[in-house]
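Input sequence (346 aa), recorded before submission:
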Amino acid sequence: MKRITLLLSSFFFLLSSCAPRSTSAPAEPQTLTIMTHDSFAVSEAVVKSFEGANNAKVVFLQSGDAGAVLNKAVLTRDAPLADLLFGVDNTFLSRALETDIFETYASPALQGISADFKLDESNRALPVDYGDVCINYDRAYFSENNLPVPQSLEDLAKPEYKDLLVVENPATSSTGLAFLIATVAHYGDAFTDYWRALKENGVVVVDGWETAYFTNFSASSGRGPQPLVVSYASSPSAEISSSGESLTASILGPDTCFRQIEFVGILKGTQHRALAEKFVDFMLSKQFQEDMPLQMFVYPVNSNAVLPDAFTQYAQTPSQPASLAPEVIASERDAWIQAWTDVVLK
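Predicted structure, token format:
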């Protein structure tokens, strides 16, 4: 019996030795490319958690300010450069939807988001964050120069504030467009007269928020020449001194701010649709949403996300922001930008 057992063992050993061994290696990670504006930021650990959970490699393709990003996506829609686009906001949303660059995706995570942020009923563009575009000021500058802080749009055109304001070009910057819309909401058809007054008062125009804030603004790291900049009411939470006070604050007068909502969409032509859906879900998850405030200084749309202490302490909220219906913005936006260009840049 023992002899038979030994013979059988030897037989099966020979069979296993001769059997072909598996040579399949672990699947290579899928590369997922997200086109974003230059102000996009996320913690490395947060990205790594998505990559590890989904066997993915995430690449962020920063492509200018929001207007420039959208233009690039539209121009390359027949051969898309990315799988998703993040950063289209409510000022440019209708253009993105009209050019039909997004695929529909009704993420389950939308259930935790207020209807106020869901501006696309077709679920091609899904809300991710929001913030109030306002004028920020360098507190030290106004204190040291014994100059009152302007409180209204009208104040900005007064001689004492000549050459002190930097804004973004609304043709290329969603931040600049949001401020332009605030002036339209306040002045109506006379908004061009207001911008003519600002031009005569030395308003400085740059292409995007990054340049305006980090190069021109006197309270930022760039230590530039302008103590007034079009930025966000949440920006002061990023400028905390060693004494625990914010170096900046926002002008919150009536119609001086405009609420901006940013969206993400899956680009048509993606080769990684399933993975792209997972990343949209991830952007709307509590983990990603709680990372955003101190990365991009915007508010999360997920109602379950908890704000960091620095945000709740220093970020400001306007009581009477400017408001215009989305359909009005969609129909008039290009005409406003052209009128602004004719007055300010020519």
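Checked by second reader. The chain has a mean pLDDT of 91.
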